[in-house]
């Protein structure tokens, strides 16, 4: 027999897409919104140009990294193509004291947090497993084990609570934490436990789910039969869906949720409805499992194009702006290329460093064993 | 069989297959032979798995038998337990070695113990396939060798194939086993090829090791991806006039050490080789047992040539972490220098 | 600072108890219900006497087991005192072909499934880890690892689906699975993954949560800030709260949910709102963490008293019935006592049995090693 | 300190404490000394833990520092990671040995690796307390000895105390360690007592083993609950005119085997004793290393006296599963009969 897995009461998820918060249409038209407009009323044309710049430059970093992988400079890359607005919108809603816990795909959030693009490459080149200092940018290391970071974020937020860094009204003190994860991740026990911990402890954490419709080859229907933002309601905190390709809407809803957190009002879930326009990673071949037409459909919703259209239509930019940005973009990419190639390979014995803060003698003996072994070649002509 | 499985009928009995294709063929055979056999995991359906090990199976056996699961390993193993209790024989894929741990509780507290707890009334014929090991330039969590975590767990059987022929037979043997089997696939040997007869009988039962090179000077015991490395080492040693007995352990729990004991009684020296970290790795158990059994024959302590006791390192330095031909030979030298 | 973990928007869970399905008040008054009455319209006075008998006898088994533990005959016992109605109501809603996956506390469900009371004792006496055959009663082994069985139930239900044993309309074929778990268990990743698997696969499983208000010493607020039945909505299937001390209501809602499952309409969550009237287990001392007044409050809602009041008030029983039941009850307890004491200790070498279906030689060697070792004492006078 | 901790001020410096009370006192001291120290887990607050190890701490240090968590071990460990990243020093309680596995992924893939992955930038000073071992007549999952699963994991430190004095100091030392420590508490020795000075200095650093009985005929290495058993065995052996060196390993990762090597060089025989199953148990690593280091001194292979390779059995037969005085002596006999 064929198992009928369709939810009789709810039908196909795509067929019943709920309202999503949108402030900028794919055509670049500003959609007024009674509430969310107030959250971005301070945003000037200059700011929007800034957001546009973020989108363009972070995409450029991403595409350069894809190219570097093709050239053999990186072992792998997880492209965020198509998800720039979700990442820049939420990333720019963060205050310096806020803290972000990413997956492996939050390159534009990293950009917003001031992490050097080159630093992102180490993990994918295979020279390290995270080369930036999370204490500097309040941007945690990339986490590959799906969902694990959502508990870290929640625990971190519990620490923030204990430090009295919420609800004081001091905008430079009150601190929110944001946890990034994908649609696939929502199926992991850890993510659900994070929801529970956060709600029971009323922790200042925002769960930011980039629903890019795919977990590698699995479409959203394999993870849920209702829109993901609704999960939050079952755990007792607010959840909403935002147009993840609309940087203004993402900014507005993130600001709201982060401020709730900073004010001590607890967690929220944001489902940024977006699309993974590229492959899952550079080793993936999406033509095996999805239709080209789908991609075309989403290309029309491109997160960058709509901001460009808005800027142009509103006469908020001139050609010079675009030309400058192009130049900046190419320079960034060029620097990235150069810096990537210059990333040094680690020393063999470096693998014994930082296994422990206080390394035991037994491990140091293994290090010496390796060093001696390697020396034995140096003494000879070379390896046999 | 039926028209749901057209591919196999046309397939020639003898074929030249990679490890990936051999496991695929073995899965296909098993599914043809027993319609209770299911394949489940992340991306195993339409995509055919990230390594294409399950390629084409969903197309031929349908979505009920080849299940793209939600993204959660505990869910994969836990629902496989339920399916097994209902009479199915689930073959679960864990996408990469480092991602088995969210499913570890279900494996250790449920899968391993159900037969025992039930006084033998319940059986869980579940196979958990895990592509494992390094040497492929991957990012963290994608190159680990967690086999000892399973071999330390009573109630589980643990095997690792090292070549296409074994891959083909061992997956089928694992599926017909009524005990749960953790099946480790040497991912960096996935594209090694061999020509063999798909319709022959398996040469050996599942839980048996095999002498893959005959020698007299020292014994090398290994498994999975390191078998090839050790064979290369044996070839290099032969050029230097040294002959090595190389044993492919194949089964890690239970261990089948009789051939190792026999060899060590002749050679007096044993080198155990694996990628996993040294402390409490499989080599440790082999060393302890061989020392217990062959105490008077050993002329040197058992030498463990393994990964180091560090997390799996970044790809650009993995070659220094992993045992290679030279480190195996160095181990042999050390054994012989006693 | 003191962390404020109260949910601002939702307040204290107890203060906002939602409507629960109730058909029989604590005073034994029948409350009419437009819908749920139809689900139990076949229930005769005889049936209600039968339910009463189930409640009384299962409680007697439970209290006898507590006594046996006190006498040193059992190592431990997890009393279900106060939860009889939830268990009998759901247990009696099951059809023979249905399948139940319990925790360690479902003694009355076991009773309904025809498991011999003595068989429940082996685990707690320490002579085995489950002595009944789940294939006989379709009552799975007790599971102590919190939540693990919910995934087993879900997988089993997926098997039922694959066997075509749902939605055929054949009342003897269509099969439902029921998974029991506690309020504390809802925090486990596994339980949430079970919700997801069940909903995505539309599996014929009923999640039956006995919310007895406590997870050992932790009150419900440590697991959730909204009523637990709402969790289901976030995953896209129905959830409801029932008076867990009302056997009729529990029967009705369980019948509904099980039938949905059998009909191929997918999973449901039932939150049976009840109270653990005893200690968590015989080793627990609840006076350390809860007020006697609480217990008093719940004593008034006793699941057995209300059925008795209903039967008496409706003149549906005579004294003989109660006398007979008393006698049956005492006989059952007496038999249980005798049978418990007669449970043989396992043979030492039995620990090597059933580790594997096909035991490896290495394990058999260990068995021989033990046997030889034990024999060495037999040869001597006794152990040194 | 402040008025939140009145109890300690009144306490006499010297006290006769059980292991439970000693750990409690150690936790209290640590919390007084560093207000970043938190205690978290199931039932650790109002109840004081099912074994009362955290008794009174919530009352004195408040609910922010002694946290009754939701019922989920992955959540406990995962949020502890976050708290540690924020500068706290969480001490997590796992209620029983068999329940650590739902938290195993966070421990193995996150806790163990964070310092390494971050190139040393991040530290996770987390202590994971696990009451472990059998012999208390408990139901399944409540009597296991999972220490080897952790000792096989680089990045973790693993210790086990065996008596009140060590319990008191080792918990404090674990809490001040900047590496994650898995702290195994010998639950069947929880009520053993000792009188000692709470204000003294610890005798030994955390990661060191200790010779607890001096002897010349054979060496016995053990840890945790089996230390008492081995001491009894040593006493019984003494009556038979045999003297045993008994070493309490105390630290399981890293192992501190120097005292074992020294002893074995004198005695030539080693028996390793633990409750955990034999295959890939800690004894296996001890055996392998001692054989490597003392090859020419050993007059017998290292004898492993351990639990068997079965799931932990029902309570009424656990005495046959667990090593006892007689099995230890039998192991010594076997070592001496070579
Ligand atoms: C625990 C675990 N299981 C499996 C994987 C392999 N894996 C990597 S990414 C991925 C899909 C993730 O999907 P989603 O959460 O939607 O994030 P996206 O990649 O779409 O951004 C999988 C299965 C993993 N990294 N971790
Ligand atoms: C994974 C796991 N962690 C911890 C425990 C210890 N434990 C046993 S029962 C229990 C509380 C369970 O509460 P709940 O789910 O509400 O069920 P109840 O006992 O109230 O029926 C705990 C923490 C366990 N059995 N399994
Ligand atoms: Mg996705
Ligand atoms: Mg409860």
TrEMBL record, chains A, C:
Name a GO molecular-function annotation. Answer: oxidoreductase activity, acting on the aldehyde or oxo group of donors, disulfide as acceptor
Names of required cofactors:
thiamine diphosphate
What GO terms in the biological process aspect are recorded for it?
Answer: branched-chain amino acid catabolic process
Q: Give a yes or no for keyword Oxidoreductase in this entry.
A: yes
Q: Which residues form a coiled coil?
A: none
- Specify the protein name: Pyruvate dehydrogenase (Acetyl-transferring) E1 component subunit alpha
CDD domains listed in its UniProt record: TPP_E1_PDC_ADC_BCADC (cd02000)
Q: Pfam families from the entry? A: E1_dh
Residue intervals of the Dehydrogenase E1 component domain: 56-330
Q: Tell me the organism.
A: Phytoactinopolyspora alkaliphila
Source organism, top-level taxon: Bacteria
- Signal peptide positions are none
UniProtKB/TrEMBL annotation, chains B, D:
Organism of provenance: Phytoactinopolyspora alkaliphila
Q: Which InterPro entries match?
A: THDP-binding, Transketo_C/PFOR_II, Transketolase-like_Pyr-bd, Transketolase_C
Give the keywords, sorted: Oxidoreductase, Thiamine pyrophosphate
Cross-referenced Gene3D superfamilies, in alphabetical order?
3.40.50.920, 3.40.50.970
Q: Key word Protein biosynthesis present in the record?
A: no
Q: Which Pfam families match?
A: Transket_pyr, Transketolase_C
Transketolase-like pyrimidine-binding domain: residues covered: 17-192
Task: State the SMART domains in the record.
Answer: Transket_pyr
| UniProt protein name | Alpha-ketoacid dehydrogenase subunit beta
State a single Gene Ontology molecular function. magnesium ion binding
Co-factor(s) = thiamine diphosphate
């Amino acid at each position: 027999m064929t198992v009928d897995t369709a939810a009789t009461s709810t039908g196909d998820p795509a067929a019943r897409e709920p309202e999503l918060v949108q402030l900028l249409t794919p055509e670049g038209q500003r959609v007024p919104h009674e509430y969310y407009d107030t959250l971005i009323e301070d945003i000037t044309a200059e700011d929007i140009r800034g957001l546009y710049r973020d989108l363009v430059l972070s995409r450029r970093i991403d595409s350069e990294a894809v190219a570097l992988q093709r050239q053999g400079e990186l072992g792998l890359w997880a492209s965020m193509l198509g998800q720039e607005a979700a990442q820049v919108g939420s990333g720019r809603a963060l205050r310096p004291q806020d803290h972000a816990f990413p997956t492996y795909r939050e390159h534009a959030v990293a950009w917003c947090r001031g992490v050097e693009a080159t630093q992102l490459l180490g993990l994918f080149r295979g020279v390290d497993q995270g080369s930036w200092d999370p204490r500097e940018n309040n941007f945690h290391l990339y986490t590959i084990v799906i969902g694990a970071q959502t508990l870290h974020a929640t625990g971190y937020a519990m620490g923030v609570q204990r430090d009295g860094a919420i609800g004081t009204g001091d905008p430079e003190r009150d601190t929110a934490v944001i946890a990034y994860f994908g649609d696939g991740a929502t199926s992991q026990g850890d993510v659900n436990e994070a929801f529970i911990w956060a709600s029971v402890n009323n922790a200042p954490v925002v769960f930011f789910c980039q629903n890019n419709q795919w977990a590698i080859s699995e479409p959203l229907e394999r993870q849920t039969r209702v829109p993901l933002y609704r999960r939050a309601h079952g755990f007792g905190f607010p959840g909403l869906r935002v147009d993840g390709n609309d940087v203004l809407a993402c900014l507005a809803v993130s600001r709201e949720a982060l401020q709730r957190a900073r004010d001590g009002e607890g967690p929220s879930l944001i489902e940024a409805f977006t699309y993974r326009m590229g492959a899952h990673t550079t080793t993936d071949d999406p033509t095996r499992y999805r239709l080209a037409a789908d991609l075309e459909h989403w290309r029309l919703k491109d997160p960058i194009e709509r901001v460009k259209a808005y800027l142009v239509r509103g006469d908020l930019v001139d050609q010079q702006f675009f030309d400058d940005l192009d130049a900046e973009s190419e320079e960034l990419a060029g620097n990235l290329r150069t810096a990537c190639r210059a990333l040094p390979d680690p020393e063999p014995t470096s693998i014994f460093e930082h296994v422990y803060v206080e390394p035991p003698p037994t491990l140091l003996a293994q290090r010496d064993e390796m060093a001696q072994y390697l020396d034995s070649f140096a003494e000879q002509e070379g390896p046999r | 069989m039926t028209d749901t499985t057209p591919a196999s009928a046309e397939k020639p009995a003898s074929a030249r297959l990679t490890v990936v294709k051999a496991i695929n063929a073995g899965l296909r055979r098993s599914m043809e032979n027993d319609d209770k056999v299911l394949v489940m995991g992340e991306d195993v359906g339409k995509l055919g798995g990230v390594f294409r090990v399950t390629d084409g199976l969903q197309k031929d056996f349908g979505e009920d038998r080849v299940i793209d699961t939600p993204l959660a390993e505990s869910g994969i193993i836990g629902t496989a337990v339920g399916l097994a209790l209902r009479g199915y024989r689930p073959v679960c894929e864990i996408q990469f070695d480092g991602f088995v741990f969210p499913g570890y509780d279900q494996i250790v507290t449920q899968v391993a113990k159900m037969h025992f707890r039930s006084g033998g009334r319940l059986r869980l014929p579940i196979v958990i396939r895990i592509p494992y090991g390094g040497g492929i330039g991957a990012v963290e969590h994608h190159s680990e060798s967690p086999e000892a975590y399973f071999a330390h767990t009573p109630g589980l059987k643990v095997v690792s194939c090292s070549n296409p022929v074994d891959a083909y037979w061992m997956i089928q043997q694992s599926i017909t086993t009524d005990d749960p089997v953790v099946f480790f696939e040497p991912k960096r040997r996935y594209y090694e090829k061999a020509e063999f007869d798909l319709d022959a009988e398996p040469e050996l039962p599942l839980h048996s090791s095999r002498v893959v090179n005959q020698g007299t000077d020292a014994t090398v015991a290994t498994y999975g991806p390191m078998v090839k490395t050790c064979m290369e080492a044996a070839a290099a040693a032969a050029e230097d006039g040294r002959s090595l007995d190389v044993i492919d352990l194949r089964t890690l729990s239970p261990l089948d050490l009789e051939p190792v004991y026999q060899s060590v009684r002749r050679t007096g020296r044993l080198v155990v080789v694996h990628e996993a970290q040294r402390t409490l790795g499989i080599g440790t158990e082999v060393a302890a047992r061989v020392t217990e059994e062959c105490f008077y024959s050993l002329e040197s302590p058992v030498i463990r040539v393994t990964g180091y006791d560090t997390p799996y390192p970044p790809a650009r330095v993995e070659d220094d972490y992993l045992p290679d031909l030279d480190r195996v030979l160095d181990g042999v030298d050390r054994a012989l220098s006693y």
